[in-house]
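#struct-help
A.M.: can someone run this one for me? Single chain, 369 residues.
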Amino acid sequence: MTTEIFYNISKIIERDSKSSTYKFALLRGVIDIIQDNSPYISFLENRVHIPTGLLIEKWLIYYYPILQSHTSIPQINGETNLAFSNQLSKLIFDYETRGGFSAFYNDLKNKGIPEDLQSDFFELAKKLRDTITKMPMKYIGRSISNDFYSIFNYENQIIRKKSTIDIEILIKEFGTFSIPLEYYQAFKILGSFINGQDSILFKWAEFSVNASGNNLSVHKVLNEVLKSPITLRDVKESKKLYKEILQKKGNIYCVWTGRKISNYDIDHMIPFSIWKNNDLWNLIPSDKRINNKKRNKVPTPEIIERQKNLIIDYWGIIYKHQSKRFQKEIQVSLLGNQSFDSWKDIGISQLQNSCNYLIENRGFEGWKI
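D.P.: on it. Structure tokens below:
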């Protein structure tokens, strides 16, 4: 197992395009199965093979309470329903008078699905299998490879209806999938941290719940622990500053193209979604169309180098108008122990280093024109 695998996993989590929670559910499911040390896991050459039915079981566990919840918890962008929403919602409705989620899972694991629900459950299981194998398995890893199924391979088989449907039938009749051995090893070692069960935040929340005598919930504690003092993009000061410049000089230039603009956005050079930072040095005018293309991507060191003179010009203007705030913010965020006397060169160099780290090590998508 190499460090490249860990970088790849980071890139997949951060950079793979996501229009739904499917990729998260796939990774979470695979990690949970590996962490469960399932006896159905097998090894052949350099790949690890796992029954697809185990993933179907995990997805049922993950999505049942989400669809059952009275609170709308969006799981997909641009569409109303998940691919299997109708089938799973019907199952949830059918189990309302039979004991709910726990009763359903007990039937799946032990008794078998009731005879009058078997046909509907069979169609739900097939829909889940098709969704898993044709969507996230196909596309996951596209941030590190142009190939489809670059990490996951799957072997479907003809599914024959059985007189009783339970977890054993899902495991034996719904095919298998495989992942490279190195990914299996990484998930086995660090999977609980990736999924969050052993993360510092989760353990912190668990401690607080126990210390309260179980009067608090993990959910409640996490909501409080995760609160940030910076929750909103704050560009008011920068907008006011650049508006004054526009009135005096009549010219403002897009930081990324160098073209003269009159209709502009204030761009967080390092995106706010990645780093909640409203420092003045991080807020620079950008053409609205360019800013829409950049969105949550990180500028590459190359485009920063190409545009560094304009960036420094804007920094100089900010420094002139807001010298104390600018100096404090850039010292803490970019200069560190370096002397402020060389703030221009050091600032640009550290901005490049920070962006390169976010792209290469953290897996965020780089951006250049």
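A.M.: thanks! The radius of gyration is 26 Å.
D.P.: also worth noting: Strands lie at 42-44, 47-51, 153-155, 176-180, 252-253, 260-261, 264-268, 283-287, 298-299, 366-367.
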